[in-house]
Amino acid sequence: MDRIIKEKFTAVQPAVEWKFTDAALKYIIDGQTDKDLKIERIAFEDVYPLYGSIDVRNSSTERSHSIQLDLIDQLQMARGIVKKAHKETFFPLLQEIEFKIDKYIASASDALLTDEEIIIQDSCRKK
Q: For residue 88, how many C-alpha atoms fall within 13 Å in the half-sphere facing its CB?
């Protein structure tokens, strides 16, 4: 659902995230039978903004770049831990994990797409 929310909407504030999660879930369920389905429009009745929001010049680009650098840094630290563990203990799976981490670092070093970010994070959580 996070992937759909990031693909279909702009940044989501935590106070209204539930509405976007509901729309993403409905999109997933209904999309199984209707491949041309468009995600529903999100609106809040009788809600008025109390302040305006502006996008600081290049802030989205800078945010994406910061996320990319942070992810690469975390992956490099994880690779260091796996390498050290592999030196201490022979365990073939560690070599496979190191290979996957290297692949993720290479992927994240190019232009990091939202899908790649989510895939890398999901994979790291599972390991």
A: 6
